[in-house]
């Protein structure tokens, strides 16, 4: 029923966010980029804090130090090994065989890093988000996403990308259905069949429409994902349109050009 609908409202404004970005830019410059991690947290705190549902705002509890530690961990676990296996054999002139082997190992590292980064970032952001004091969480580990990711990459390669809607549906199911608010999880009932026709059409029309068809598909898929996400007996509904998003993006793009990025 119409009266049963509840809206998520955003109260933020560009002026305030612009001020935050200016301060972040200044502090980032004088700290040689180290402040970037704290800057990102400040933006998230502002954005989260401007989202209101049922009279209460969301809150974000992450810290710059946590994001810095996460980045350093990623560099130690993946960044340094990736550089060693992908660049060191070539820089040391160790021969074509070792260079090729290093390239293969670097690809393998990337195939492991992407699932870990996807799940890790979702777990962290949800764990630092709250509404009315109720924390969000993600209840799966990255290893459980690896088979979905690898299967998706292989089948996308074999089908020249046409498996994409099915991979996206499996990925969305994994990420959404294992996300919780308190002790109750969200769920997702979408499937690849529903979007395959639109995806195929967007690819066929990509060149004739100067790739605007891909943007049309992106908007449609965004609506579809929200419309098929549930929380208990409640179902989300997304009302964005291709026209509305197109003019929003175009207007913002022109303003960015006219203001030289400001």
Q: How would you characterize the overall build of this protein?
A:
The protein has 262 residues and is an alpha+beta fold. The chain is 63% helix and 12% strand. It is built from nine helices and nine strands. The protein has helices spanning 14-30, 36-49, 64-91, 96-127, 146-158, 164-177, 192-204, 212-227, 242-258, and strands at 8-10, 51-53, 56-60, 129-131, 134-138, 179-181, 184-188, 229-231, 234-235. A hairpin with a 2-residue loop joins strand 2 and strand 3 (56-60). Helix 6 (164-177) packs across helix 7 (192-204).
| pLDDT < 50 stretches | none
Strand order of the largest sheet: 1-2-3-4-5-6-7-8-9
**Count of β-strands:** 9
Spell the H/E element sequence. EHHEEHHEEHHEEHHEEH
Shape: globular
Mean pLDDT reading = 93
For this structure, the quaternary state is: single chain
Bin the helical content: 55-70%
Count of discrete alpha- or pi-helical segments spanning 4 or more residues: 9
As a percent range, the share of strand residues is: 5-15%
Rg over CA atoms, rounded to whole Å, is 22 Å
Largest sheet, in brief, is: 9 strands, antiparallel
Question: What descriptors fit this protein?
Answer:
nine-stranded antiparallel sheet; globular; single chain; 262 residues
Helices and strands in order:
Elements: E1 8-10, H1 14-30, H2 36-49, E2 51-53, E3 56-60, H3 64-91, H4 96-127, E4 129-131, E5 134-138, H5 146-158, H6 164-177, E6 179-181, E7 184-188, H7 192-204, H8 212-227, E8 229-231, E9 234-235, H9 242-258
Helix pairs in contact: 1-2, 2-3, 3-4, 5-6, 6-7, 7-8
